[in-house]
Amino acid sequence: MKRIAILISCLCLFSLVYAQKVKTGIEMLKATNFKVLEGKRVGLVTNPTGVDNNLVSDIDILHNAPNVKLVALFGPEHGVRGSAHAGETVTGNSDPRTGLPVYSLYGKTRIPTDEMLKGIDVLVYDIQDIGCRSFTYISTLYNVMKAAAKRGIEVVVLDRPNPLGGEKIEGNLVEDDCVSFVSQFKIPYVYGLTPGEVALLLNGENMIGGKCKLQVVKMKGWKRRMTYDQTGLEWVLSSPHIPETSSAPFYSVTGIVGELSTISIGVGYTLPFKIIGAEWVKAQEFADAMNALRLPGYTFRPIFYTPYYGPGKGKELQGVQIYLTDYKKARLCDVQWYALQELYRLYPDHDPMGEDTKRADMINKVCGSKQIRKLFLSRHQWQDAKEYWDKDVDNFRKTAKKYYLYK
Questions:
Q1: Residues 103-120: tens digit of each pLDDT
Q2: CA angle 395, 238, 60 (to 5 degrees)
Q3: Angle at 343 between CA 337 and CA 347, to 5 degrees
Q4: Radius of gyration (Cα) for the chain, nearest Å?
Q5: Cα–Cα distance between 147 and 360 in angstroms, integer?
Q6: What is the pTM for the complete model shown?
Q7: Does residue 231 carry a pLDDT above 90?
Q8: In whole angstroms, how far apart are CA 333 and each of 38, 173, 198, 228, 361?
Q9: What is the rounded distance in angstroms from the CA atom of residue 127 to the CA atom of residue 196?
């Protein structure tokens, strides 16, 4: 029995090591005994996703490292510990585990101030992103780099996988009149870069109004073709509604239409970002219409559900559950626009995009252009806006390749 137990333990250890194909930036930093941080006063920009391959928090790792002086923590949207909901103001406090001051970069102050940065030599950034422009963590990265460049502070980015992989690029570049915290700088909606590569792009293309002293601690083992489930890494929820690996691509699939007040995308139910529904929808005919489009990589199932909060709270809604059947073939962003197209064709008395004028500005900001909404509403046909949506992809891909760290 003892031999069997030892054999099982060895197999489990081998399985864990084999499964983890990727070593993240924090792992590679540990492997060098934190050399780039030695003798420096460190500010850490992170949240619950900043963990090593054994799910130990960066906060604890850097706090306990004898040759690292961690002096402050900075939190993005949802906060350092991840307890705040989307859009909720995050306030500063102190970290209960380490006693370190915590500064919020989501709320009234989104750019680190002189007072926050006093005495800091280097800012370390380690946050798992989800590869979509409107997910605000890369906006925080932009603001951190901008503040650091202004004050001569070094930035070290501990790199992590893009859960969408490094090959998909979709959407137009942000236009000047639509710059906001959900579209902070000029990249496509789905941009195909890791956080480290985003930082190199920001610096290299002069997007932060200057240059910051930047160092990216590369991953080991990540390939551009990889989605997150192929890395062998455990997923830590990147926000309350991205609880698992499979949720990440769906943020790009339904996130824009989710800005409308009369459409439910499963936020408030058990399938956030994986549903499109409303009170006036008939599930089966909507599913039939979506499946008739034969969108590569997708299948749609009729669903009946009652949200616990959010749009449609407490009411039985009908809609479609979206299934990704072939990720390589699937275009992520198109689905929500085709859904709006089919909903208007089936139920012309309802026009979620046209009628919800209070949300028009937010839709424009998330899209990065006023043209997408305008072109779509001309006939409620996605083909009328799709060419504009795709117009910058090829040029951006050429620019982005200059900053690729991985093949």
A1: 999 988 999 999 999 999
A2: 120
A3: 155
A4: 22
A5: 31
A6: 0.92
A7: yes
A8: 43, 14, 20, 19, 19
A9: 10
